[in-house]
Amino acid sequence: MSVNKVILLGNVGRDPDVRYVAQGQPVASFSLATTERGYTNSNGVQVPERTEWHNIVMWGRNAEVAEKYIRKGTQLYIEGHLRTRMWEDRNAIKHYVTEVYVDSFELLGRPKAEAAPQQPAQPRPAQQPTQQQPQQGEQPPF
Q: Which of 10, 79, 123, 136 is spaced 20 to 30 A from 44 at the CA atom?
């Protein structure tokens, strides 16, 4: 038995690049950054934060959603699996890349630059009180 599962929570590093392959099927690719917090170990040595960059690939309906809603800075939760592919350049040098093929994802936040500004609260029309005022000598209902 074997398992190939990836779970990532991070921020999109660049807008998705969407292209259409055989029979018009969309594929989106972009980078995602995950960061491990820095800390100080028991010896007092400070370990700085560490950022990893992941190559993300989405196909079909996921790619369509990515094209519409995912932008640089968007926070994403991703579940998928790893694939490594190899190609040779024109100098016959082999190159390898590992990518996360997305099975499912969830948009957790939008980039701060695109966040909609808060609208001021609209005044509500005056409403009639729902409780009657106590008559002189009566106790209030609470």
A: 10
Distance in angstroms (rounded) separating the CA atoms of residues 47 and 87: 36
| pTM metric for this prediction | 0.71
**Model pLDDT for residues 45-79, shown as the tens digit of each residue:** 888 999 999 999 999 999 999 999 999 999 999 99
Q: What is the DSSP string of the chain?
A: -----EEEEEEE-S--EEEEEGGGEEEEEEEEEEEEPPEE-TTS-EE--EEEEEEEEEEHHHHHHHHHH--TT-EEEEEEEEEEEEEE-TT--EEEEEEEEEEEEEEEE--GGGSPPPPPPPPPPP---SSPPPPTTPPP--
CA–CA separation, 70 and 111 (whole Å):
9
Report the sign of the C-alpha dihedral through residues 111, 18, 107, 13, in that order.
Answer: negative
CATH superfamily of 6-37+48-113: Nucleic acid-binding proteins (2.40.50.140)
Two tokens at 103? 């099975």
Closest CA to 34 of 70, 7, 61, 60: 7
